[in-house]
Amino acid sequence: xxxxxxxxxxxxxxxxxxxxxxxxxxSAGWQVKGVGxxxxxxxxAPGVEPIVADARDRSSLVEACQGADVVLNALNPEYxxxxxxxxxxxxxxxxxxxxxxxxxxxxGNVYNFGHDVGMNVAEDAxxxxxxxxxxxxxxxxxxxxxxxxxxxxxxxxxxxxxSMVVQSLVAGWT
Length: 174
Fold this sequence. Notes:
The protein has about 170 residues and is an alpha/beta fold. The protein is about 40% helix and about 15% strand. α3 (about 80-100) links the parallel β4 (about 70-75) and β5 (about 105).
C-alpha cells in the first residue's frame, strides 16, 4: 500500500472556486498547495500551503506546480482583462502541467453557452461563441483538448455550479 499523499496545486486558490476546492481537498486528506499573487496569498483556506506565483510567468508557474499529481486551474482574471490574459495564462498552465506530469482540472463556466444560456444548462448543451467571453472560453477549451490529445490524458469536465464542481473534483480524485 502506497503512503504517498496525493498533492493538488490550486491556481487561484483564494478565489471562489479555488477556495471551495481547496477546503474540499484538505478535508479529503490531500496535500494542498494554493497558488496566488502577493495581494491574496494570505487569504488561503486553513491547511493550504501558500505559494506565490504569477500565471503570466511560465517558469514561476512550472516551479509552483512541482510535485503535483493534479493542477486545478481556477484562475479568473478581471472581466475586462479576459481578452488579453485568459489564453496566455491557459497556455502557461498547460505548459506547467505538461512539465510536471500532472493532470489538469478545468472547471467550466457558463460563458461558452452564449446569450441563450438558461438556468438548467448541462455539460452537453450546445456551446455558442455569441459573446467575447464565449469566444475566449471556447478557444481555452480547444487548447486544453489539444493538450489531452497530444499526451493521451483523459478529460475531466464538470458543470459550472460551484458546489457540483467541488463534489465532482473530490469524488473523482479521492
